[in-house]
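Q: Convert this sequence to structure tokens.
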Amino acid sequence: MMTKLGDLRFLGSGLQRPECVLTTASGDLFVTDPQGVAILSKNGAVRRVAARGTPDGFFPNGIAMLPGREVLIADLGPGGGVWLLKPDGTFTPWLMEVDGTRLPPTNFVGVDKAGRRWVTVSTRLFPRTLAAKPGWGDGFIVLQDERGIRIVADGIGYTNEAVVSPDGQFIYVNETYGRRLSRYAIRADNSLGAKEVVCSFGPGTFPDGLAHDADGNVWIVSVVSNRVIKVDTKSGKEELFFEDSDTAEIAALEAEHMQDGGDANKRHAAGAARTTKNLASIAFGGPGLRTIYCGSLEGTQVVCFDSPVAGAAPPHWHY
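A:
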């Protein structure tokens, strides 16, 4: 049964571009904030940790939590790279280049149960909107482990979130304008196998954030169409659970996109005009991990609703 707008709940207030959401067993939610991170308590109260000495044009996007509630932040601004924010506001660069080259605007950073850090760059083009078109693929994934830092996957169709499966065997990645959920097997030496396409999405679906449920399936959110979709990782079958968009508007934007890429900013504005404000991330949390929390590009609150299945606990669940 699909979730309806009336089933949604909204947590917090006064948030600014809460693009990425991290859940914890304590009930605290960590979300992206223009100055660093915002922390929402179970009752919705908001506390901010402002980063001191941010670079010009700092534009936080994906976040990941480390022990002690230190937070890694991917900078989508012109400076790019990944920064480390400590609970007292101390802010230092963590990863600014790979293979001798400065990182472009950086989309996402994640940490898996083995402590490996995964970083995604959507495109080498600047501005990034130049890559928001069918058939383009110059995004990549960076890995930091005990062997160092290196690019482990390349040629991706606008790399967005990349998350390791609960069993540690695969890393799943959303290719937003490639319109695919793909995965790579993780070998014993942490190198990646060949890309496998798990699911190719149809008109109006532009996958952004993703999370695993307790059965190993992947849930994705789509920007523009504000969709929440479950993908069976064995069959590749997709199941739509929620959508907040106008059918005619999505069809028109889809036609523009397929013709020449269209105007990515126009598409995002359409998603932002809806109640859910352009959904961008998804996380399982709450009692029994049976609540879905979604971040957005233009919202002032976190969107949440009851999940029909339990989620897999994220690596930072007990931090």
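Residues 74 and 196 are 26 Å apart (CA to CA).
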